[in-house]
Design goal:
Blueprint (H helix, E strand, L loop, with lengths): L2 E7 L2 E6 L2 H9 L3 E3 L8 E3 L2 H9 L7 E3 L17 H9 L9 E5 L8 H10 L8 E5 L5 H10 L6 E5 L6 H7 L2 E4 L8 H8 L4 E4 L4 H4 L6 E4 L3 H13 L4 H6 L6 H21 L1
Parallel strand pairs: 2-3, 4-5, 6-7, 6-9, 7-8, 9-10, 10-11
Antiparallel strand pairs: 1-2
Helix pairs in contact: 4-5, 4-9
Length: 278
């Protein structure tokens, strides 16, 4: 949530925001959401969906440029060797099955990211995949609740939490997984989506933010309703016909840091030129 100003007006909190996540959260809390006039020479959005929302909030559409999330393709790439899961087990101190399906959810553990939905989806798959595991990467205020839910559903032994990890370990986790699942409530363009696809691992997520701009075919994954049944169905579908990791990773070629840095530098140069001209 990016706030410029918070002020009391008529007994209600008035919040000025510049992000879709912030706006969604503020509206959910019953707050008035407004946007002050934008005097910047240019605005950046991490997805076309976010650019549309920015314009709908009153920001000048002609000033908005879409600049997707970038990543280090030397770090985030498919790691296909057979010892990945053994390496992870040793690094994390967690027993990770070598052959059973492995699902990974990357993000702060909270209600917005939907780890509870992922746990319920895992439980729904128990009949077909009784040894499937879910690895939750991250920390958050809902950790205790998610643990309790996993215990209640009888899948506690198959739900593992890594806590905070070294960023260099994330490509290994993503490459070792069969699917990255993120039943999120709202996003701009989630880093976890792009990083997973760059590692050759398809994603199951909701049709929010820029997800549709990334998941353009079933090679990249599935966009589903935010329910355990829909998530479980998508996971089952991918396990039945997994895409080639190299084909998945190729989708992320457009997100390379080098090309992004060049595009961003050109954007700033144009803005600086326009500013000096006036």
């Amino acid at each position: 949530l990016l706030l410029n100003e918070m002020e009391r007006q008529g007994g209600r909190l008035r919040v000025v925001v510049l992000s879709s996540i912030g706006r969604a959260s503020a509206v959910a809390e019953g707050l008035d959401v407004v946007v002050k006039p934008i005097h910047a020479g240019g605005l950046l959005a991490v997805s076309k969906a976010l650019a549309r929302e920015m314009a709908a909030l009153g920001m000048p559409e002609e000033k908005i440029t879409v600049h997707y999330t970038g990543l280090d393709r030397d770090l985030f790439r498919p790691l296909g060797h057979t010892q990945l899961r053994g390496q992870l087990s040793a690094s994390l101190g967690i027993a990770i099955p070598h052959k059973a399906p492995l699902f990974v959810c990357v993000g702060a553990i909270n209600r917005r990211k939907g780890q509870d939905i992922a746990v319920r989806a895992l439980a729904a798959l128990s009949g077909d995949f009784p040894e499937a595991c879910l690895l939750l990467v991250g920390k958050g205020e809902e950790e205790a609740a998610v643990r309790a839910l996993a215990s209640e559903l009888g899948v506690a032994a198959r739900v593992c939490m890594t806590g905070s990890i070294d960023h260099n370990l994330l490509p290994i986790i993503l490459s070792a997984a069969d699917v990255m699942v993120l039943p999120t409530l709202s996003e701009g363009l989630a880093n976890a989506w792009v990083e997973s696809i760059a590692c050759g691992t398809p994603i199951v997520t909701t049709d929010v933010g820029g997800a549709r701009e990334l998941v353009t075919s079933e090679i990249a994954g599935r966009l589903v309703e935010r329910t355990p049944e829909a998530v479980a169905g998508a996971l089952r579908s991918i396990l039945a016909d997994p895409p080639d990791p190299q084909a998945v990773a190729a989708i992320a070629d457009a997100f390379d840091w080098t090309s992004h840095a060049e595009a961003l530098a050109a954007h700033y140069t144009r803005l600086a030129g326009a500013s000096s001209a006036t």
